[in-house]
Amino acid sequence: MNGLQIVVCGSVVPDPLQTLEPTAGPAGPVLKNEAMLPAVLDPWAGHALWEAAHLAAAVPGSKVWLVALGPKAKLQQVMMVVGQKVPFELVAVDGPAGGFTDSHETAAALAEAVKAIPGLDRSRLLLFGGWESAARGAGTTLALVGARLEIPDLFLGVDALAVREDGSLEVLERIEGGRHQVSVCAGAPAVLGWATGNRPEPRNNPQVGMLNMRGILPALQKARPAPALGGGVTFEAVSLPKQQRETRVVKDLPAAEIARELVAWIES
């Protein structure tokens, strides 16, 4: 079979270990001191990128692109780290990223960036991304990108993907009740929204980093500006979710007793 062309859609998000406080900005809600917050690659997109690199290494002739939408300065900060992990070609889109954008508008910008990739053979395309996002978790962006690219086969909550000898795809998806289902489709093109997958974050590889940097810096310099985002959705109010933590240290408590306490706490 011919190699696969894997496009991973991902963005940057504030480091989830930081305290994120929404506040009112001139054009709608923003995060307090957002420009000063350290950024990371969205963890869900990261899972997709590690899986894409693993699959590309297993299928000769395959290639991985990372299509990333975010403020150029933040993208540069994050790509200096991610570029050390796995081989990919960056396609940068300069625009706002976060929890206060409309997934339809974001999907339109990402789809146009994918369509503009030179030489991309869409008959061999696997569109990867997270089935959710650490920004807001609308869970709709990747499906909307796939729709704009006219790809009908969509799988969400993917934990494993196997490419058979005939080119067909065997997909392990999460379904309700903590169960999985196995689906088979004829092959590319397809859209796969990854859950956590099975690949840990790779260690830094200086050789990979040197190769990636040759493409990352030029890609950042010519990052296309995204159309104005944010006009398609209005937020009446935003606030942090209420948090409550009550910790007890108990040794040798049976699992069944722990479960009963959790259920009682949830129902209270």
Characterization of the model:
The protein is of the alpha/beta class and 268 residues long. It contains six helices and twelve strands. It has helices at 43-58, 72-82, 103-115, 141-148, 206-221, 255-267; strands spanning 5-14, 22-25, 28-31, 39-41, 63-70, 89-94, 125-130, 154-163, 169-174, 180-185, 190-194, 224-225. Strands 1, 4, 5, 6, 7, 8, 9, 10, 11 and 12 form a ten-stranded mixed β-sheet that branches. A two-stranded antiparallel ribbon has the order 2-3. Helix 2 (72-82) runs antiparallel to helix 5 (206-221) and helix 3 (103-115) packs across helix 4 (141-148). The mean pLDDT is 88.
Chain-wise SSE layout:
Elements lengths: L4 E10 L7 E4 L2 E4 L7 E3 L1 H16 L4 E8 L1 H11 L6 E6 L8 H13 L9 E6 L10 H8 L5 E10 L5 E6 L5 E6 L4 E5 L11 H16 L2 E2 L29 H13 L1
Parallel strand pairs: 1-5, 1-7, 5-6, 6-12, 7-11, 8-11
Antiparallel strand pairs: 1-4, 2-3, 8-9, 9-10
- Low-confidence runs of at least 5 consecutive residues: none
The largest sheet, given as strand count, sense and whether it forms a barrel, is:
10 strands, mixed
Instruction: Count every helix, treating DSSP H or I runs of 4 or more residues as helices.
Output: 6
**Helicity level:** 25-40%
Q: Mean pLDDT, as a whole number?
A: 88
Gyration radius, in Å: 20 Å
Structural class: alpha/beta
The best one-word shape is globular
What sequence of helices (H) and strands (E) makes up the elements? Answer: EEEEHEHEHEHEEEEHEH
Fraction in beta strands: 25-35%
Ends: how far apart?
A: 57 Å
Number-wise, the strands total 12
